[in-house]
Amino acid sequence: MISNLPTSDGTRVPSAAPSDAAGRRSDQEGQERMASVTPPSATRVAIIGAGRGGTALLDLLHQIRTIEVVGIMDRNPAAPGLQRACDLHVPVYERLADLISSQRVNLVMDVTGDPNMDRTLHDQTTGGADILSGPASRLLWDLVRHESALQGELLHAEKLAGIGSFAAGIAHDMNNPLQLILGLAEDLADERDIETVHLQARDIIEAVKRTTAICRDLTSYSRRASSQQDSRIAINSKLDEALKIARYAVALQNIEIRKSYQSDVAVKGNPDELLHVFVNLITNAVQAMDHGGTLTLETAMALGATQVRVSDSGCGIAADLLDRIFEPFFTTKPPGKGTGLGLYNIKNVIHHMHGTIEVESRVGRGSIFTITFPQETATEDGSNPL
């Protein structure tokens, strides 16, 4: 029986029940990879405070395999970190005593900014758990913000590195209208009929517009992701935009493209970052189909969640590599063909949008990447950040 198990970095890989032939390698049979959940030796952490600091801390700790966040609490029921905790299946507590007494907590992290909380924690915490609060907590918040800034720089660097792979596609797409402009201009040099001149001038204008559109698309894609407040993103049009950008990097002539879009599918997030996610997934899918195949793009909304699925019929991913593909600087591509940061950045962007990414793959059959975003919840950050 196959079931999906969440890993601690927010990804999901299929889990298979063990067979009688326990020694048989699953990748030789094309079976999916079995994933472990939280390691037995994980540090168990409780977070007090679910404002901006608590939310950022929760996102960061949730990605670390050796840490298990056992719960979070805040006096304000509308604090954004509480909803984020629900999205990540982290328990939410209403009372401090329930959180720190019902779990074998190793570390209590106070990010409320309340000077009285430190004494309360020392009075109620038992079992030898360490407490991080006050100036140490402020330092941690600074480190979390610094880590977030570094993630942004890493995303932009990886994006610019990928622009080099667009060169051949850009040259091809720009050469066609330029050749048309040259031919029309040569004809105009000897043309005397005013009506013909007008027609050819209009053709030149349209060719220039096509060239300008190519430059505009690439300039927009290569810019640094905007730090503006998240906005509503129409998923279907963003996938189509990504497909248009990806064709500069990979040839689509032998690829059958299938779309299955549900209407009015939208999420809240950073449009520039989500575009980069889709471009990367589409490019990877096409590169996995050396001799042609089928690229399938799907969107759907069900049970309060938004799903985006990018599928290919390519070579697939070996079972023993599935749990490493989201690691930084890990790549299965030959030297010079990949930075090893694509899927790592994808995972981080999706996490920041409160989503998860799952992968299913079989060698010789292809891969399916499924992104799931939770239903938007309007909350106000009324709790104390750091």
Short description:
The protein has helices spanning 52-62, 80-87, 96-101, 117-124, 134-163, 167-190, 194-222, 235-246, 271-287, 342-352; strands at residues 2-6, 11-16, 43-48, 67-73, 92-93, 107-110, 130-132, 231-234, 255-260, 266-269, 293-302, 305-312, 356-362, 366-374. It is an alpha/beta fold. The strands form three sheets. It has a seven-stranded mixed β-sheet, with helices on one face. The chain has a five-stranded parallel β-sheet with strand order 5-4-3-6-7, with helices on both faces. Strands 8-10 form a two-stranded antiparallel ribbon.
CATH class of the largest domain: Alpha Beta
- The CATH topology of the largest domain comes to Heat Shock Protein 90
Largest sheet: 7 strands, mixed
Continuous helix count: 10
Mean of residue pLDDT values: 76
Element order: H for helix, E for strand = EEEHEHEHEHEHHHEHEEHEEHEE
Distance between the termini: 46 Å
Report the CATH superfamily of the largest domain.
Histidine kinase-like ATPase, C-terminal domain
Radius of gyration from CA coordinates: 25 Å
CATH architect. name of the largest domain: 2-Layer Sandwich
Shape: elongated
Number of strands: 14
Order of adjacent strands in the largest pleated sheet:
1-2-13-14-12-11-9
Strand content: 15-25%
- Estimate nothing, just give the exact number of structural domains: 3
Unreliable spans are: 1-40, 377-386
For the structure shown, list the relevant keywords:
alpha/beta, Rossmann fold, disordered C terminus, 10 helices, elongated, 3 domains, Helix Hairpins, seven-stranded mixed β-sheet, Heat Shock Protein 90, 386 residues, five-stranded parallel β-sheet
